[in-house]
Amino acid sequence: MRSLRARLSVAFVIIAVLTTVLASAFATYTARTMFRQYIEQRPDQTSLQRPSGRPSGAPPGTAERPYTRFGSRERLFQERVREAIWSGTAVAAVIGVLVALWLAQRIARPVTELTHAARAIAAGRHAPPVPVSGRDEIAELGRAFNRMAAQLAEDAEQRRQLFAGITHELRTPLAVVQGTLEGMLDHIVEPTPERIAGLHSQTLLLRRLITDLRDLSLAQAGKLQLYPQPVDMAALVSDAVEAFAPSFQDREISLGLAIPKTLPPLVADPDRLRQVVQNLMDNALRYTPRGGAVRITLAAENGDIRLSVADTGQGIESADLPHIFDHFYRADQSRTRSSGGMGLGLSIVKSLVEAHHGRVTVESNPGSGSTFTVTFPARPQEAA
């Protein structure tokens, strides 16, 4: 019997039958003994002498002990009591068996449903949520399984979107490079410096995409190599702002910076932190219209370091906020790769921040801009 339901049913049936039989046997013995004592102690009982005159083996001179012999009425009463007890035993046994089978089915059904759902997931199929009721251990197991199944489905969907995004992002630059080179080989297109520069820009785009995907996959797998050391966060942000200043000036976007005089020490990988700051500034530059403003703020909060990048762009719709850190996601689908990026910048930001045990959040209202806030846990320099 490999079925849990069958084993539980047999166990419950044996317990129910054994319990009722033992209880009935004990009740029969007790009733018979008490009835005999009652008959023997009646004042009007009929005492008879034993045929031998004295108890067998009793020494001479020992008083003869009377004994009671049941009559037909007493025997009838005793038989009725015994029949009633064993009839009740049969009814109790039947009820016990039915209750045992019901309990076995009730206990085994959630486990069976979990087994079917687990087999569906193992076979690569989508498993519907397992029905859960109650608050016992099996119900908690069902809730945990449903959460796991939902997370697996979400991860699978993200992988499908990631592969689709990678294919889409790689196809366009490769098609440009292939078409241009084929034209040059067929002497249809002249290899002018401008066309060669265009090919070079496409190869740089491909290299950046591959590097970003590699960093993203390593960070999400927890295998991204970090080289922590004491970092002057104020100097790092100031350098990034200085490097981006010409781009903001060309777009006529004002760039503000607020840095306190003192900040807690921070131990982190400076190259990865610089990448986080640059991606946030690049995102603000892309989505802030001409004549807008971007403000970068550094602050100390409960011993941690908080970096905020606020813009006056178009903002993010509430439906897009939960997906803003997903791979290849663009809140404005009408933007091209050149104007809206490849959709990996914010995903990399989130992965790098979490690799440093930090957190990133976004607040936005359509038409009033967005604010991205990154909080890094400050660590003493000895922790390096």
Provide structural commentary:
This protein has 384 residues and is an alpha+beta fold. The chain folds into three domains: 4-42 and 71-128; 155-220, Helix Hairpins, CATH 1.10.287.130; 229-383, Histidine kinase-like ATPase, C-terminal domain (Heat Shock Protein 90, 2-Layer Sandwich). Helices cover 56% and strands 11% of the residues. The protein has eight helices and seven strands. The protein has helices at residues 4-40, 72-122, 137-185, 193-220, 233-250, 270-287, 337-340, 345-355; strands spanning 229-231, 254-258, 266-268, 293-301, 304-311, 359-364, 370-376. It has a five-stranded mixed β-sheet, covered by helices on one side. Strands 1-3 form a two-stranded antiparallel sheet. It is elongated, with a radius of gyration of 42 Å. It starts with a helix and ends in an 8-residue tail after the last strand. Mean pLDDT is 77; it is low at 45-53, 62-67, 333-341 and 380-384.
Task: Put the structure in a nutshell.
This protein is an alpha+beta fold and about 375 residues long.
List keywords for this structure.
384 residues, alpha+beta, Heat Shock Protein 90, 3 domains, five-stranded mixed sheet, 8 helices
The tally of domains stands at 3
SSE succession: HHHHEHEEHEEHHEE
Taking the alpha carbons of the first and last residues, their distance comes to 59 Å
CATH H-level homologous superfamily name of the largest domain: Histidine kinase-like ATPase, C-terminal domain
> Major sheet: size, sense and barrel closure?
5 strands, mixed
In spatial order, strands of the major sheet run 2-4-5-7-6
Helix content: 55-70%
CATH class of the largest domain: Alpha Beta
Q: Can you tell me the CATH architecture of the largest domain?
A: 2-Layer Sandwich
The share of residues in extended strands comes to 5-15%
The overall pLDDT average reads 77
Name the structural class: alpha+beta
CATH fold-level label of the largest domain: Heat Shock Protein 90
